[in-house]
Structure formats: structure tokens, C-alpha cells
Design brief:
139 residues; alpha+beta; five-stranded antiparallel β-sheet; two-stranded antiparallel ribbon; 5 helices
Length: 139
Amino acid sequence: AAAWAGSPGAAVLLPVGRSFDVIEVGATAGRQALVRMERMGLPLGPVAVTPHGRAHFLVAPGAFAELPDLLYRMGWDGARLDLRCLPPGSHITAPPSDLAGLGPVRWLRPPELGTAVRPPHARLLLGTLAYVCHRSAAR
């Protein structure tokens, strides 16, 4: 933290695919899905929102490989949804880092001790995320 404080404007990048995978959706759909999932009592991990309008749901590793089959089995056409899983080896910008001068990445749901170490499996969140993304596209 001291090194970060000594370099104003520096960004911290988190590697995807080791400790977590990331399901990315539009920020508006992400906010709506988060509210719905909290009401349903679903297990949730950290969720960040970027200044360019994307929400990042941190989920257990392995989601990238599972996502197409999970969407298919749930009856969703993944190509028609504004929903994707970032590939292993990619990176996300950690809040509150600045994203390329566009503004800070912010937590919609900050990490908590249990969920930061063990994010939920994608299959637990995917139905709600797909539904909300589908509804957002229909508007």
C-alpha cells in the first residue's frame, strides 16, 4: 500500500484465472443483477465497476471453460448476451486504480474475508446474470 500511495495514478492489475475468473457484463445490468442476487441470498464475491461501463463479477476459477456449456444448458444463446468471461491470463484493474485516465474502478461489492479467498462458482450467478442481460438488451 505504501508503494501504491507513493505513485499517484498507478494502477494495480489482478491476473484472471489463478485465484478467480471474471464474468463481465454491462454496468447497468450488473447493478440490477447484484441487487437481485442479494435479495435472493445468493453467495456473492467481489463485484467491480469500470469507468467505461462494465461490471466485473469475480467467480471461482474455471468459469471461462464452463461458461459456453452452462449457458447452453440454461437455454441461453451466449452470442446474443452482453456477457462474457475474461480468459485466463488477462488482467483486470483493481479498485480504486485509475483506468487509463478514464477514472477509477470502483467496488459495487467490496471483497469480504470469506468471498475474497473463495469466490462463488459461476453456475450460481449465471442464470440471474443472463436473465438481466437479456432484459437489458430487450429494452
